[in-house]
Design a protein that fits this description.
The complex is a heterodimer.
Chain A lengths: L16 H13 L3 H36 L9 H20 L8 H9 L7 H16 L7 H18 L4 H20 L2 H13 L4 H22 L17 H31 L5 H18 L10 H8 L5 H20 L7 H22 L7 H17 L2 H12 L5 H18 L4 H8 L7 H6 L16 E3 L4 H10 L4 E5 L5 E5 H10 L25 H4 L8 E4 L7 E5 L1 H10 L2
Parallel strand pairs in A: 1-2
Antiparallel strand pairs in A: 2-3, 4-5
Helix pairs in contact in A: 2-5, 2-6, 2-7, 2-9, 3-5, 3-11, 4-7, 5-6, 6-7, 7-8, 7-9, 8-9, 8-16, 10-13, 10-14, 10-15, 10-17, 10-18, 11-13, 12-14, 13-14, 14-15, 15-16, 15-17, 16-17
Chain B lengths: L4 H59 L3 H14 L3 H13 L3 H14 L4 H14 L2 H13 L6 H18 L3 H14 L4 H13 L3 H12 L6 H14 L2 H13 L8 H20 L7 H25 L5 H12 L6 H6 L1 H22 L4 H11 L8
Helix pairs in contact in B: 1-2, 1-3, 2-3, 3-4, 3-5, 4-5, 5-6, 6-7, 7-8, 8-9, 9-10, 9-11, 10-11, 11-12, 11-13, 12-13, 13-18, 14-17, 15-17, 17-18
Classes of the chains: A mainly alpha, B mainly alpha.
């Protein structure tokens, strides 16, 4: 059953009509207040988000220690029991108290931005914190990053509301908080900023970039104060020994590109079917998922339970043979599908990184075993594998590259990352055109903008609609009579007039006729012109820019940037509209 | 446009309200910070305790010979407090548990991050030994010798060198093993146990003479270890240095420590001592008086000729060596007295050498001799070192 987040509808939100009145008054008495507060609050948002994310991770670890013990291993019955019981508790909490805490957090943050004017309730933040910590800590195969992102966005929303910021500012606070939450969770500010831009906002905006950077940096400073400056994982020595090794990384990219859509398909298939089951089953679904995940752990693979950071670390340090790594790839995929599809709160990032690291490790270890002179360290493959699945599954190619660079702190691995991630992204997109977040959005009955499509939308330029010059060009000093003759000889309906100061004027025959009625034929045409001039347009400008000039001008000259005296061609409203129709 | 008095008041109120909000926000941040800090400290402390506890358990299991349990424990320890020493212990446990591929992958990863680490190279060498990869084993043993070590690197390098020598001996690479052992001996401290261990390995590497030198160097101590006396006697005996063997073996068997020796080993030593004594009684040493030497030469002649006669009568005809020896005996005067021999040292030497050649040829043609013939054959093998001091 479809159960969209229970956020207030736009009309009923605190940012409704009364706020507009207040906003108007504020604009008058303190016009720069929002702008100044925006930057200061970005720092507060970063700090508080960072603190909450640190507390969130500690809560997960404490719950894990208290429920699964300090060293869970196969054969312990608690591995079966704990995730199942936690599933029941989480389901009850989500259904009765925190319905908006369901899911990963990325789409909820996008919904807050695009639908609810940046509104995320305090209850959602608390619910996300509690339910995700219980679920992940008790062994459900989910990650803390996406919840961290939503917690950060929620903090931002709460702060913004309490300071009565304008609706526009309030809306922009959600992604700023999201960046802070994600940055603290990953200990990687650049990746967090890029992810929010790639997946939440969808476009680069100078207005929000400064605040994003401030909040992300603040949260990472806080996180590092606690966890230290070390990256999320201990990174083994990594170097590209031989350019031929890129072939091995390309193989990894291909495998990642094939695995990512398979993961998407499995999730996309199971999730809506479980949600379509009767409501009472939703109390049991997380428990059953927990039982299945626990069974995987019980029968010898407890590594798939929880975030799996320590297992990623072990894989990067060569603690597993390729057969085990490959088994972990498929078991984690299965466990994550169960946990996430059941509606258990928790994120997809950590499982994605886990599966990618195991896949990379498996490919690396296999290649190292059979072609020892071709491949480098297994740790390098695990690291690149994380980026590969991030690019292929989460469809954030830029973030995937920077995430690996930030997490490893090693730029010598950039070539393999770019190669493998690009291959994985292209193959995955070719096989599964719709990204996983978009799939979830559709399943939730929301209609949020697709960031992937937005990124790849081709913007039309003037050069796409420009037509060759087919009208006469006359000088401003020419007489009305000469201009009339030139127009009639060219069988044209307009002409371009070049003025002495380098400006241009597009004159229609109607305007010329009006001028001829009041002036003598020997009068110079520049005396008949109105005060304005045709705008300066160049071929590389967006086509949109030209549209609003047409009611005034019959056509527009397109000039050469190097020489404004040279007309590259002309643009008419018909040309523009024809081009837009053609690109549909 | 200028603000009205009401608007100015509203702006003042707004500024005050914003200031209060920011202060409140600061206070809230401080409270969250304090709570997070307390939570973090307790968490960190608990993690450290868990890490130490699991590491100790893993190490105990490893020492108790339960590598399977140690693997789980050390993995848990690493999850809480990652450090290289624990990683090496875990990889070692994997190797000891027979998970050679996992151990190999793990150690290789560790090695890639620290190729100069002595411990990691040593463990990789041991893995290569188990996997039968000689080139890798030698490479990593050598890298371990050249690598860095925590603690007493001097002793660890010597241990690695001895281990490498043992491996080379097992691969019958005696000359390479000897080279390593001689370096170890040259760098070894004045510790009898270490020197005796090196000497023992040299014996195994068929570097008996080098072993004898080390045994003797240890045996010169005021209270020489029994093993040094026994080793010196044994190696001297093997080299045909019967005077030295007699000396050390008699001292060894007279030592009160010999009581701890096993019966078989003691019997073997006594046999060697007896043989040495008999050899020395037969050997025509230049240290003897001319008369005694002449008497022994005549005795050698008689023993050799009897052996030749017996051998010729039992062996099939046609052995060119025997024929040559018979022909040369025919050129030696049949009747010789002690006095005659005393006067002819060249003849004396000719008879001794012919006697040795006779025993050697007879051993080839007629099989292993016994009794005095066997003693004479021993002398014949290396006559010039028999009474070497």
């Amino acid at each position: 059953m479809s159960n969209p987040p229970t956020q207030p509808v736009a009309g009923a939100s605190p940012a409704g009509p009364p706020r507009m009145t207040l906003a108007a008054a504020m604009d008058r008495i303190a016009p720069t207040r929002d702008e100044r507060l925006f930057l200061v609050l970005s720092i507060f948002i970063g700090v508080i988000s960072g603190l909450l994310v640190v507390a969130f991770r500690i809560a997960i670890e404490w719950i894990r220690l208290l429920t699964l013990g300090s060293a869970p291993h196969g054969g312990q019955f608690r591995l079966l029991l704990v995730p199942a019981v936690a599933g029941l508790v989480v389901a009850a909490l989500v259904i009765w108290f925190f319905p908006a805490a369901r899911g990963s957090g990325v789409n909820q943050t996008k919904a807050a931005l695009y639908i609810y004017d940046g509104y995320i309730s305090f209850r959602t933040v608390i619910g996300k914190f509690l339910t995700s910590a219980i679920a992940i800590g008790s062994g459900h195969s989910l990650g803390p990053e996406d919840p961290s992102l939503q917690i950060g966005a929620g903090v931002a929303s709460i702060i913004g509301r309490n300071l009565n910021l304008s609706r526009r500012r309030l809306r922009m606070f959600a992604p700023i908080g999201a960046a802070a939450g994600l940055a603290a969770a990953f200990n990687a500010p650049i990746s967090a900023i890029l992810f929010v831009i790639e997946e939440v906002i969808g476009s680069w905006s100078a207005a929000v970039l400064g605040s994003l950077v401030l909040s992300a940096i603040s949260s990472v400073v806080v996180a590092r104060w606690f966890w230290g400056p070390e990256p999320l994982f201990r990174i083994p020595s990594i170097a590209l020994r031989d350019p031929r090794e890129l072939m091995a990384y390309a193989v990894l990219g291909v495998f990642g590109g094939l695995l990512a859509p398979a993961f998407s398909l499995v999730l996309g298939y199971l999730r809506p079917r479980l949600r379509a089951l009767p409501r009472w089953t939703q109390f049991l679904q997380p428990a059953v998922a927990g039982l299945l995940v626990g069974a995987i752990g019980f029968f010898g693979f407890p590594q798939v339970m929880g975030t799996g950071y320590d297992v990623i670390d072990q894989a990067m340090h060569g603690q597993f043979v390729w057969q085990i790594l490959l088994a972990l790839v498929f078991l984690k995929l299965l466990a994550t599908t169960f946990s996430f599809s059941s509606g258990t709160p928790g994120g997809m990032f950590a499982p994605t990184l886990f599966i990618g690291a195991m896949l990379g490790g498996a490919v690396g270890a296999f290649e190292k075993h059979f072609f020892p002179h071709l491949t480098g360290t297994i740790g390098a493959y695990s690291l690149v594998g994380m980026g590969v699945l991030f690019a292929g599954f989460l469809r954030a190619p830029l973030t995937s590259v920077f995430m690996v660079l930030e997490v490893s702190g090693n730029y010598s691995i950039i070539l393999p990352i770019i190669l493998a991630n690009t291959l994985a992204f292209l193959i995955s997109r070719g096989l599964q055109p719709v990204g996983i977040f978009e799939v979830f959005t559709h399943q939730d009955g929301l209609d949020l903008p697709s960031m992937e499509e937005q990124r790849e939308e081709s913007v039309l330029h003037i050069e796409d609609a420009i037509q060759p010059l087919s009208i006469p060009i006359v000088e401003g000093s020419d007489t009305l009579e000469a201009v009339s003759r030139a127009i009639s000889e060219a069988h044209s309906t307009a002409c371009l007039i070049r003025l002495r100061d380098g400006a241009w004027y597009a004159m229609s025959t109607d305007e010329l006729t009006s001028a001829a009625a009041t002036l003598v034929p020997e009068a110079q045409i520049q005396g008949a012109l109105k005060a304005d001039r045709t705008p300066l347009l160049f071929p590389d400008m967006p086509l949109d820019n030209a549209l609003h000039f047409f009611p005034r001008w019959p056509l527009l000259p397109v000039l050469n940037r190097a020489s404004r005296g040279t007309v590259e061609g002309i643009l008419t409203l018909d040309d523009v509209l024809r081009r837009y129709r053609g690109s549909e | 446009m200028a603000l009205t008095p009401e608007e100015r008041g509203a702006r003042r109120n707004l500024i005050v309200r914003d200031a209060i909000s920011l202060v409140t926000l600061f206070l809230i941040t401080s409270v969250i910070f304090t709570l997070t800090l307390l939570l973090f400290r307790s968490f960190t402390k608990h993690r450290q305790e868990l890490g130490a506890r699991w590491k100790a358990r893993g190490e105990r299991a490893l020492q108790a010979g339960h590598p399977g349990i140690a693997i789980e424990d050390l993995r848990s320890a690493l999850a809480y407090v990652p450090d290289r020493a624990t990683e090496i212990e875990l990889a070692t446990a994997l190797a000891e548990a027979g998970k050679l591929q996992e151990a190999s992958v793990y150690f290789t990863t560790l090695w890639e991050s620290a190729p100069g680490d002595g411990t990691i190279n040593l463990e990789l060498a041991r893995l290569a030994v188990k996997q039968g990869n000689e080139d890798q084993a030698i490479f990593h043993y050598q890298a371990a010798l050249d690598g860095t070590w925590q603690g007493n690197g001097y002793d660890r390098r010597r241990e690695v060198r001895l281990e490498m020598a043992r491996y080379l001996i097992s691969r019958h690479e005696d000359s390479k093993a000897r080279a390593q052992l001689l370096i170890a001996a040259g760098n070894a401290p004045d510790d009898p146990a270490i020197k005796l261990a090196i000497a023992g390995l040299l014996e195994q590497a068929n570097a008996t003479e080098d072993a004898l030198g080390i045994y003797r160097s240890v045996a010169v101590r005021r209270e020489p270890p029994f093993a040094a006396l026994e080793g010196a006697g044994r190696t001297a005996f093997a080299l045909g240095m019967y005077r030295i063997a007699q000396d050390y073996l008699s001292r060894a068997l007279a030592s009160p420590l010999a009581a701890h020796f096993s019966g078989d080993e003691e019997a073997a030593d006594r046999t060697m001592l007896d043989t040495s004594l008999h050899v020395m009684l037969l050997y025509p040493s230049f240290d003897l008086t001319p008369r005694s030497r002449a008497q022994r030469v005549l005795a050698i002649r008689d023993i050799a000729r009897q052996r030749l006669t017996a051998c010729v009568s039992t062996s099939p005809p046609g052995s060119p060596k025997l024929a040559d020896v018979v022909s040369r005996w025919n050129q030696v005067p049949a009747q010789l007295t002690v006095s005659q021999l005393e006067q002819q040292p060249n003849l004396e030497q000719t008879i001794v050498l012919l006697g040795f050649e006779t025993e050697t040829a007879a051993a080839t043609a007629c099989g292993t001799p016994t009794g005095n013939d066997a003693l004479l054959l021993r002398i014949a093998n290396n006559p010039y070192v028999v009474d070497q001091q």
